[in-house]
Protein 1
Amino acid sequence: MSFPWAEQYEPKSPFMKWLDSRLPLPRLVFNAVGPGYPVPRNLNFFYNFGVLAGFALLVQIITGIVLAMHYSAHIDTAFASIEHIMRDVNQGWLIRYLHMNGASFFFIVVYVHIFRGLYYGSYKAPREIVWMLGVVILLLMMATAFMGYVLPWGQMSFWGAQVITSLFSAIPLVGEPIRQWLVGGFAPDNATITRFFSLHYVLPFVILGVVILKVWALHIPGSTNPTGIDVKGPQDTLPFHPYFTAKDFFTLTLYLIAFVAVSFFIPNALGHPDNYIPANPLSTPEHIVPEWYLLPFYAILRAFTVDLLFVPAKLWGVIAMFASILLLLFLPWLDTSRVRSANYRPVYRIFFWLLVVDVLVLGYVGAMPAEEPYVRIGQLATMYYFAHFLIILPIVSAVEKPLPLPNSIAEAVLGKSAAQVAAAPSGGVVAQPAE
Amino acid sequence: MVRLVGMALGLVFCFVLAWAFLVPREATQPDPVKLLHREPKEVSWPHTGPFGKFDRAQLQRGFQVYKEVCSSCHGLYHVHYRDLEKIGFTPAQVKAIAAEYEVPAIDPNTGETITRPALPTDKFYRPFPNEQAARAANNNAYPPDLSLIIKARKNGESYVYSLLTGYGEEPPPGFEVPDGLNYNPYFHSVNIAMAQPLVDGQVEYADGTPATVDQMAKDVVAFLRWAAEPELEVRRRVGLASLLFLSILAVLSYLTYRRVWADVKP
C-alpha cells in the first residue's frame, strides 16, 4: 500500500510494542490518516470535502441514534412524537434540527465532492472502484434520506412516499405487486412507516461500511491531485499528518459555521412547510415536491411527458431517472481521455461547467409546478444531462487535444528549477513511479 | 461496447425528449382565482430578525385573543398549560387558567368516565372531541390545529396576519362567493370557511392597549409563533454562542494550518 517512501510505524513504548504485535490498531491509524500516508502536496480545498462528508455521516448517525430513543414509529403517534422531541425533550429541538439540516449539508458536501471528482478526473484508472463505491454511497444516501423524510408522517412525508413508491408500479406486469410489496399495503400506512424506520436506522451503517471499503480502495493509489498526473517521488507528497489533518480541521470549522448558522437561525428554510401538517391521505398538497437534494432527479422523472415507442411516459421517466445515476458507474469507460484533470482539457472544461449549470437548472425546474415554460426547460436540460455523459464525453475525449502536462507535481507547484532542488535533498533516493 | 450502448441509449433518450419538447401544448386558461390571490403583507415583530426577542406582554395579549376568540374552534394540540409559565404567567395563574376547562378522566374509585378540571400538566383543551364533530359544527370545514400553523404555512407569520386582517373587501363584480364561505384574497382559494374572526374592541386588554383588529392580529400571531417555536429565544442564544466559539476556533485552526505548512509553500 501507498508509496515506498512512506514513513514506517515504530512503536516506541513497551506497551505499544506489545499491542502492535497483537492488535496493530495504532499502526492502521498511522498508515491510514497519520504520517504513514503520503498525499500529493498540491491538493486544493476541494479535496477536503471527502473528510467533511465522513464527518456529516457521523453527525447523522449520532443525532439519529438519540432521536430514535424518543421517536415513535406509528402512524397515530409519529407526528406527535416529533413535537414531543421539539418541545419536551431536553435540547430535543437541537438534536432534531441538526439531524434535519445535517442531511442537507451531507448532500451539499457530497455534491461538491462529486463535481470535484468530475473536474479532476478522479474516476479514471486506477481509481474506478473508488468512484463506483461512491456512486453506491450516493444511491444509499438517497434511499436513506427519502425514508427519513417519511418518518415525521407529515403531509410531504406521506405524499412523497406515495409518489416515490408508485414509481415502481411503472414496471410492466409486475410493477403493481412490487409496489404493494414495498409499501406493505395499497397505500402508505403503518406497515410502511415501521419498515422505513427499520431501514432508515440500518442503512447508515451500511453506508459506513461502504465508506470504509472506499477509503481502503483509495489508499491503494492515493488521491488524485489538481494536475491529474501521477505522484513520481517523495518531493511530490506530504504526510497526511500533520499537513492534511491541519488543513481538514480548518475546513471543518468553516463547515461547522455554515451548518450552525443554518440549523440555529433558519432551521426550516430547506424544508417544506407542508410537513408540519399531519399526514392526511384524503387531502393532496397543491405541489408535491421532494427534498431539495432530489430535485434534479425529480425534474428528469417529469421531463418525459409523451408515450413513445410502446413505452408509457411514466416508465420513460422512471428508466431515465435511474439511468441518470447508474450511468455514473460507467463513467470511467465513457471518458477515454488519458488526461485526468480538466485544467489540461480545454474542451472538456467547457462541457463540465455546462453540466454544473445544467444540474442547477434541473434542480430549479424540479421545484417548479409542471407547467410551461418549466416543462420545456426541464426537457432541454434533461437532454443535455444525458447527451453530456453518453454522447459528448466519449466524442470529446476522442478528439480533444489536451494542453501539455507538467513533468511532475513538484514542478507544477514550485516551478522547474525549484523542483530539482527539492528533489535533490531527499537523500539521493531515485524517485520511483507509483505504478 | 460500453460507449456504443451508452451512445445508443443517449440518442434514444434525446429523441424521446425532443419529441416531447416539440409536441404542441394545449392552451391553458389563466386561473381566475390565481389573479385574485394576493401575497401576504410584510409585517415585523419584536422577535423578527436573528437577534429578536419575544415581547412577553404581547405574548400574553396574544394568548388572551387566542383564549377568547380562536379557541372556540381551533385547538392548540401540542402545547401544555404549564408552557404558559414561559410567557410570564405565574404557576398560580397557570393553575387557574387550566382549571377553567373540564377534561375527560376516569374516576379512580368506580372506573367510570367523568370530567375533572384541567391541570397545568394537561395539554390545551380541544374545542371538539374529534374531526367529525368539528366538521359537523363548522359547515363541514375543519378548523386546523394552531400550535404549528406558523411553521406549516409559507411565510407563516405574515400569512396568518394577512389572513386575519384580509376580510371586508368586496369580491370583484362577477365573482361568486359560494354560500357559507367568505371572501379573503390572502387565502389560497380566496374563499375561506372561517368568518371574519376579529372586530375592533373584541377583547379588552388588561394593560389598556387599544384592541384594534391590527393590534389583535399582531398579538395573536406573536403568540402563535411562540406556540410553534417555544425554543426560539434559547435557540438563537445558543446559536450565537456557538458561532462565536466556532469563529475563534476557525481563526486558531487557520493559524495552526499556516504554521504547519510554513516550511512547505515556496
Protein 2
Amino acid sequence: MSAELPNQATAEAPAAAPAAARSRVRRAWAFFLPLAVFAVLVVFFYKGLFLDPRVVPSALINKPAPTFSLPVLHSPDKPFSPELMRGQVWLMNVWGSWCVSCQYEHPFLNDLAKRQVVPIVGFNWKDDPAAAKTWLRKHGDPYQLSVSDLNGRVAIDWGVYGAPETFVIDKQGMIRYKHTGPIDAKVMNETLLPIVRELQSAKSGA
Amino acid sequence: MSRSSQANSRTGAHFGAKVAQTARGMASLILVLMLSTAAVAQVQQPELPPPTPEIAKRLKSIESELRCLVCQNQTLAESPAGLAGDLRREVRTLVEQGKSDAEIKTFLVARYGDFVLYRPPVESKTWLLWYGPFALLFVAAMIAWRVIARRKRLEVLPAGAPSATSPIAGSSHARKLLDDEDAK
C-alpha cells in the first residue's frame, strides 16, 4: 500500500501536497498502530506460553507462618509447633505417601539433608501414619521430623492446595518463599538454596 | 516478588533448554494428574450430617463464588477434589459459627489469595480487568463514528459535484464555478 504513495503524490503535486502529506501520516498510523498492538499481544502470549496456570502465587509470602500444634509422626504424643524453629531458617515440605510427585522430588530432599544445609520439617498431609512411616523407610527420611495433619485443617491455614509444596521460613518465623510442585536440581540450586543462604546470612536480631 | 514465579526465570532461557523444560513441565503435569487420582487414597473424612435447608442454601451460594484450586475451572460447590471437600467443610463450620459471607471470603483470600474468588475485587491492579473491555468498546465506538462520519461526507459531496449521469447538474455546477470566478 505504501508503494502507491509516490505515484499519487506526483500526480496531485504540487497543489495537493499538504493533503497528500496528511494522508501519508494517516496511512502510517493505520499501518503502525495495529502493528504495535500486535507486537504487544505477541509479547504477552509468548510469556503466557511458559506460565504454569497451576502455580498460584501464595498469599502468605512475607507473612508470619501460621501457627499450629500437630502430633509428630514418629512420636504422636509429642506436639510440634513452628515456634520451636524460631531463630533458624527452615523448610517445610508438604508430602504424603499417596503423592506421586513427592517420590520424584524425594531424592533431592535426601541429598539436601545429607549436606545439612537447612533443617527440613515434613508436613504429612492427610495421610495414614502407618503408610507414611513405611513410605519414609522405603524412600529415606530427610526430615528433622514430620508432623501429621490427619484431617487437612492446618493445611488450609497454610494455603496448601496440592502436594508437594515447599515453604521457606526465616529466622523470625516469616514465610519468605513457597515452591509449588516437585523440586528438581534446577529449582534446588537456582531458587531454593540461594534464598536459604541469603536468609541464613541475615542477622537474626533484625 | 520476582522469584515467586518460576516462569520468570524461564523466559530468558535458551530455546532448546526451553523445550527441555517444557518437556519436564509436561512430565510434572502428568505427575500432578496422577496425583489427583492418587488423592483417592488419602485419608477420608467421616461425612458430616446433612445441613439444614437454609444453611445448605447459603453454602451453595458461597461455594459457587469460590474456585477449586485443584481443578481451577470448577467452583468449590461442584468440585470432587479432596481439598475442595476440606474447604467445603471449613466453609460450613464458619457458616455455622455465624460468620458473614464477606468474613468467609476474607478468611479464604488470606490463605489462598484473590485467585479463590471467581469475582476478583475491584482495586487499582484489577482496573484493566474490570474496565478494560469498556475502554476498548469506547475506542471502537469512536473509530466507527469517525469512519461513518467521513463516509457520509463523501456520499453528500457528489450530489452537488459534476457527474456524468446528470449533465444538467454538472453544467449548473460549472456555471456556479464560473460565476464565482467572475465575482473575484
